[in-house]
Design a protein that fits this description.
seven-stranded parallel beta sheet; Rossmann fold; alpha/beta; 9 helices
């Protein structure tokens, strides 16, 4: 059977005698930053489509709570992705527990909003350590465990394409993500591993409150942000999750090396 006919057979196999087979049945997925926000929504979408999900997060109590809510055989792994030893431990744990995986979503990230000339070395290094270095070495350690035909998804940002006030360092960290994805899409092509980026626009997650100076300002802050979005509202975590599910599944079997903007059109303005 050729590669193309194998994919066609999998599509047809989802719909036998009126029954719909889950898109990720039998798959193993890892989601970093999977205990809240976009990461948790993606982990839930993967689990609902039949995947066994491992979420990675820094806070044990948050990871445990997310795993309990996910159910469906989900597992948690506690570690700080900015610490490179976390990726070595995760790879060893996954290899021992599952042998191989099918989907890796590098989603964990941090964002400090501040004018460029107020940025100190600590803030600069912290953002690059989590948003850039962690993605590079996470994929480096995990990619040998990704099965042929698997999917690697990186969470970028529309800040890498659109200038946003106070986002210079963050934008730089996310611009590197796109460069990684394009290189890896070619480096991993012989194993038919697809590598893509999802770039969210403003999304209504708990981190949104941190972007204003006080939580009490969240409503007015969100309203101002929404006014700049062509679709007139903030995105929802589930909308980003559906995009991640698309890139994780065979629905995107002929897509690699792209940066998918899921941003309500804000990058156009």
């Amino acid at each position: 059977m050729t590669e193309a006919s194998d994919i066609e057979a999998r599509f047809k196999g989802r719909h036998r005698q009126g029954e719909c087979v889950n898109k990720l049945s039998g798959k193993i997925a890892i989601v970093t930053g999977g205990n809240s926000g976009i990461g948790f929504a993606a982990a839930k979408a993967f689990a609902n489509e039949g995947a066994q999900v491992v979420i990675v997060g820094r806070r044990p109590e948050a990871v445990d709570a997310a795993v309990a809510e996910l159910g469906r055989g989900a597992a948690g792994f506690v570690g700080d992705v900015s610490d490179l030893s976390t990726h070595d431990r995760l790879a060893a744990d996954v290899a021992a527990r599952f042998g191989a995986i099918d989907i890796y979503l590098a989603n964990a990230g941090v964002c400090n909003i501040e004018p460029s000339f107020d940025v100190d070395a600590e803030s600069y290094d912290a953002q690059f350590a989590t948003n850039t270095r962690a993605v590079f070495f996470g994929v480096s350690r995990i990619s040998p465990l990704v099965r042929e035909g698997g999917s690697i998804i990186l969470t970028g940002s529309i800040a890498s394409a659109k200038v946003l006030e106070g986002h210079a360092v963050y934008a730089g960290t996310k611009a590197a993500i796109g460069a990684f994805a394009r290189s890896w899409a070619l480096e991993l092509k012989n194993r038919r591993i697809r590598v893509n980026v999802i770039s969210p626009g403003p999304v209504d997650t708990p981190i949104l409150a941190k972007l204003g100076s006080r939580i009490a300002e969240k409503a007015s802050f969100a309203k101002d942000v929404a006014a700049a979005i062509p679709l007139g509202r903030l995105g929802l975590p589930d909308e980003l999750a559906r995009a991640a599910l698309f890139l994780a599944s065979d629905d995107s079997s002929f897509i690699t090396g792209i940066d998918m903007h899921v941003d309500g059109g804000i990058a156009l303005t």
